[in-house]
């Protein structure tokens, strides 16, 4: 009998407003997998900076990315699948996060749609004015990066269906 393939940790990535939190939470619920909100791992200084309309730089992001990477590796090293949100905008950031059991799912959307979503999202620290710098910083996934691109213009349920089907994800047995 062949051993079952280890189910991955999914990094739900993309710029602000692309639907990472919404789709990742739904995906984790659907699968009964662990979920983590990468935004909640930012130090307070990063949140204050973004709330003031100033984009983060590499020095701001590296300590945060290390916390995200620790969550990922604590799961992959024990064979536990999970879903975590992280903008993961640059390839160098993804290099820190990646591993054999890590898949990046990039929610891709049109700037006007994302901007509208950010403006209509209640009670979030991230101003829509930062979308431009997010898009400018984003480095597309390379063919050699294990990933799936998802059109973020569909409904969250449709996007979850697509991710589960395309990656062959299997719910945890409870
Ligand atoms: N597929 C979708 N279609 C329509 N609205 C969405 C979709 N995904 C997310 N939203 C809405 O857009 C806003 C931004 O979504 P969110 O999940 O917070 O994105 P992110 O975590 O990438 O910043 C929220 O108000 C959310 O309810
Ligand atoms: O690296 C960054 O610049 C931030 O992580 C950023 O990409 C993220 O978008 C914000 O934390 C807002 O959070 P939302 O993505 O949930 O809007």
TrEMBL record:
InterPro entries in alphabetical order: P-loop_NTPase, Therm_gnt_kin
Recite the UniProt keywords alphabetically.
ATP-binding, Gluconate utilization, Kinase, Nucleotide-binding, Transferase
Would I find Coiled coil among this entry's keywords? no
One of the Pfam families matching this protein, by short name? AAA_33
Q: Where is the signal peptide?
A: none
The reaction(s) catalysed by this protein are:
D-gluconate + ATP = 6-phospho-D-gluconate + ADP + H(+)
Question: One GO term of the cellular component aspect?
Answer: cytoplasm
Q: What class of enzyme is it?
A: transferase
GO MF terms held by the record: ATP binding; gluconokinase activity
The biological processes this protein is annotated with in GO are: D-gluconate metabolic process
Which EC number applies?
2.7.1.12
Q: Which Gene3D superfamilies match?
A: P-loop containing nucleotide triphosphate hydrolases (3.40.50.300)
- Involved pathway(s): Carbohydrate acid metabolism
Which domain of life does the UniProt lineage start with? Answer: Bacteria
Q: List the NCBIfam families.
A: therm_gnt_kin
The family line of this record is:
Belongs to the gluconokinase GntK/GntV family.
Mind telling me what this protein is named? Gluconokinase
């Amino acid at each position: 009998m062949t051993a079952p393939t280890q189910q991955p940790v999914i990094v739900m990535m993309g710029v602000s407003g692309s639907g990472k939190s919404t789709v990742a939470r739904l995906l984790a619920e659907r699968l009964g997998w662990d979920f983590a909100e990468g935004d909640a791992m930012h130090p307070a200084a990063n949140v204050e900076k973004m709330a003031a309309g100033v984009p983060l730089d590499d020095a701001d992001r590296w300590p945060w990315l290390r916390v995200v990477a620790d969550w990922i590796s604590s799961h992959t090293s024990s064979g536990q699948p999970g879903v975590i949100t992280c903008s993961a905008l640059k390839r160098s950031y993804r290099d820190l996060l990646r591993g054999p059991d890590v898949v990046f799912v990039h929610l891709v959307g049109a700037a006007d749609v994302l901007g509208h979503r950010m403006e209509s999202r209640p009670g979030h620290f991230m101003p829509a004015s930062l979308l431009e710098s997010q898009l400018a910083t984003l480095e597309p996934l390379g063919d050699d990066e294990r990933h799936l691109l998802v059109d973020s213009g569909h409904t969250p349920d449709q996007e979850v269906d697509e991710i589960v089907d395309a990656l062959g994800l299997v719910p945890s047995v409870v």
